[in-house]
Amino acid sequence: MTDSDTMGTTNVGLPAGTRLAVLGLMMVSAAGLIWLVAGLIWGLDFGDSAGFLIPTIVLPAVAALLVWRFGTWARIVGIVVALLAIGMLWFTAFGLLEPDSFFDFVGGLLVVPGAVIAIVGCVRAMRAARRGQLRTQREGGEARAMNVIVTVVAGLTVLSAVVTFVGRSTADASLADGEVALKDFSFETGGAEGVAVTGGETLYVTNDDPFHHTFTVDELGIDVEFGPSSQELIEIPAQPGTYTLYCRPHTANPDDPGEDDMATTLTVG
Known about the structure:
This protein has six helices and eleven strands. The protein has helices at about 5, 20-40, 50-70, 70-90, 100-130, 140-165, and strands at about 15, 135, 180-185, 185-190, 195, 200-205, 215, 220-225, 230-235, 240-245, 265-269. The protein starts with a helix and ends with a strand. The relative contact order is 0.13.
């Protein structure tokens, strides 16, 4: 009986590592789904991002189904999808440095680790299939590994949710001379493009996105971090000029920001 034949019916058994591979791929898919839900709740304008986000959800889920049902070719597909996830979403790993920003942290917790787990599981399954090591249920090292992964991911996810909720900063808008909202990966003032302020004034800045942002102006020595739903008062130095205002995590090149970067101009009068 060929490997493809055995994968046609799950009651015959699955090669060791298959369930681990499926878990890893579903972790990647879950991250995309969580981001989508966050965007819908916060009312983000996905625009062109939908064409990037939907495949992040669908492709790993489809690959997981193929790995579960079919043989070697499906595991190769699983490995390719996992490698694509790493190549396209490698930056999500930095989210592990932001436990007080739930949706950033979840991405770091699920995407790259999930893709690596999927690759290891697929390779293990291909080797086990050649040796005829079929199992009708989780057992041995694979079962222990899956239990540890699920427990760690669930525990850290809950911890990040708590830290994000209790770590929000607040400020009094009445003490400010103007307001800026970090919204939909842009700096919004309710007026013309860019931020204009008189030197020495104070801005009330809010993060209305579910992700971590910064309010950074290198030339003025300003670099304030914002967790989701956080608020800060930022005093602008009396140094007239026009400067680049940007968010560090979402701007590739602050010296020459592009249309896709979270950046604008700060004009100090």
